[in-house]
Design brief:
Low-confidence stretches: none
Oligomer: single chain
Distance between the termini: 63 Å
Radius of gyration: 23 Å
Strand order of the largest sheet: 2-1-10-9-11-12-13-14-15
Number of strands: 24
Largest sheet: 9 strands, mixed
Shape: globular
Length: 514
């Protein structure tokens, strides 16, 4: 049979000259080169790690759980797990022991790889879950994993896999109840990666600045896969720093980031058209991009950010156009469904919403995951009878076919029987003078069932008055949409990918009216 292993396709895309630089590891603070990795290095090191895993005689379909700091060797570990035919399980580096205990217990990995500093508390958790082997991998690419792999052969035959074989499990953020493990197949990941490679115009001449974490779809799958499948070079940073990114940007052609990274780059006076002279593409995702950031970036750099939409269960779903022939990149939207992906908007009864009306976003396509790990009841709940996945996002498709995300369904506020969409209210607040950003949440209320609460951050050097914000809203929107209270705060709580953690805000203000 033809091998459908994702790594087999990635390996076939390597350039003929394997001595060429594939990844340039760079200092996160200065941008200086630390080490060069050739395509040959990737081939040999992934073979050694794959052989190490095979030497453990693991059962078919074994999971390899990884919680390590970002390094080139960590990326090679991911590729080696695919190469050996096992299932990769990335874990957020911010997770603490209690959270890790749940993930290890639920996924039952055969192998765990962790940072050396975590070994003391990770080992007992792994032992309790009967994990066969625990290795370490540090942020400089050393550790017991690399030491053990060095003893293995650099020759390895890529494991034969079918398209529907499991390649990775990604645990969702778990903002409502326990995290769920989204099962992604080789075809889920490959179909999406090849689509993005073509749609975004990738070639072997590209140079990607990779400054995202690699425990998440954006950094691990979208960024890495596009570069690897194009034979493109990566400038690799273990952490994002605006100084180092701007230092290396004249050498690059592509940058991917969450909105927070764009805001931090805009705060640096060196960001201008000259700094971006060789860039062809800036991609934003993982959290909503404020229209103010979108517009300021275009004014400062001459480039229009391409915003896209995806999630752990589906990888990428939509994208703003890459070429003018496809259409314009429109701020406040996430573009059109990607080729091969279908998007529709439904009402609460399962009917379809007409053009421009808000409802639940449902998707279908080869990129949609195979279901939740060991949660058949969730699969029944979150897939429609005709096989479409309910994303949990609320939005609309406008008259030109652009998808607009309004918010998460769990963020919907039902106040006095009326539906209130937080993103709409946030839009009005964010347009007010002196407002940097805002988050609107619903909390229990004895009379209305739920009441809106706005948490607002002021721009640097300005002050805000909660009463003025409320009075301004009352002149702009229906009274039932106006929050009952406004709080001015220094910043909003965010997760590692820059998403505002509204669940924490809801917890904080849960007893405000009761």
């Amino acid at each position: 049979m033809k091998n459908k292993n994702l790594f087999a396709v990635i390996r076939s895309a390597f350039p003929t000259d394997l001595s060429a630089t594939a990844i340039e590891s760079s200092d996160s603070a200065t941008g200086a080169t630390l080490r060069l990795y050739s395509w040959h290095d990737i081939d040999e090191q992934t073979a050694r790690i794959a052989n190490l895993l095979l030497s453990l005689a693991l059962p078919e379909g074994s999971r390899v759980a990884v919680q390590t700091e970002k390094s080139v060797e960590a990326l090679m570990l991911y590729l080696a797990v695919l190469r050996a035919g096992y299932v990769y399980l990335p874990l957020n580096t911010a997770y603490q022991a209690g959270e890790i205990e749940y993930f290890i217990g639920n996924a039952e990995p055969a192998v765990v790889v962790c940072s050396p500093k975590s070994l003391a508390w990770m080992q007992p958790i792994a032992d309790a879950a009967k994990v066969r082997r625990v290795f370490t991998l540090d942020d400089s690419g050393g550790g017991s994993l690399i030491d053990a792999a060095a003893q293995q052969s650099s020759v390895h035959s890529i494991a034969l896999k079918e398209a529907d074989d499991l390649a990775a499990i990604l645990y969702t953020s778990g903002t409502t109840g326990r995290s769920k493990g989204a099962m992604l197949t080789h075809n889920n990941l490959l179909s999406n990666a090849l689509t993005l490679k073509d749609y975004w115009g990738w070639s072997s001449k590209d140079v990607l600045i990779h400054a995202l974490p690699i425990f998440h779809v954006h950094g691990l799958f979208v960024a890495s896969h596009c570069a690897l499948l194009s034979g493109a070079k990566m400038i690799w940073f273990s952490k994002f720093d605006p100084n180092s990114v701007l230092t290396r940007m004249p050498e690059a052609t592509v940058f991917m980031g969450v909105p927070t990274l764009y805001v931090r780059l805009l705060a640096d006076a060196r960001l201008n058209q000259g700094a971006c002279k060789n860039m062809r593409l800036f991609v934003a995702g993982s959290a909503p991009l404020l229209i103010e950031t979108f517009n300021e970036w275009r004014e400062r750099t001459g480039h229009t950010i391409l915003e896209r939409y995806g999630m752990s269960e589906t990888a990428m779903l939509t994208s703003n156009p890459y070429t003018p022939e496809q259409g314009e990149r429109r701020g406040g939207t996430v573009g059109f469904p990607l080729p091969g992906v279908s998007v529709r908007v439904s009402d609460d009864q399962g009917g379809m919403r007409p053009e421009g009306e808000i409802g639940g976003i449902e998707v279908n396509g080869p990129n949609v995951f195979a279901g939740y790990w060991r949660m058949p009841e969730k699969n029944t709940e979150e897939f429609t009878a005709d096989g479409w996945f309910k994303t949990g996002d609320v939005g609309k498709i406008d008259e030109r076919g652009y998808v607009v995300i309004v918010g998460r369904s769990k963020d919907l506020i039902i106040s006095g029987g009326y539906n209130v969409y937080p993103a709409e209210i946030e839009g009005y607040i964010n347009d007010m003078p002196g407002v940097a950003e805002s988050a609107v949440i619903g909390v229990p209320h004895p009379d209305f069932g739920e009441a809106g609460v706005a948490v607002v951050v002021a721009k640097a050097g300005t002050s805000l008055d909660a009463a003025v914000i409320l009075s301004t809203l009352k002149t702009s929107i229906a009274n039932f949409k106006v929050p009952k209270r406004v709080f001015i705060v220094a910043d909003l709580p965010r997760n590692a990918m820059g998403k505002v953690q509204k669940n924490l805000l809801r917890q904080e203000h849960a007893k405000l009216f009761v």
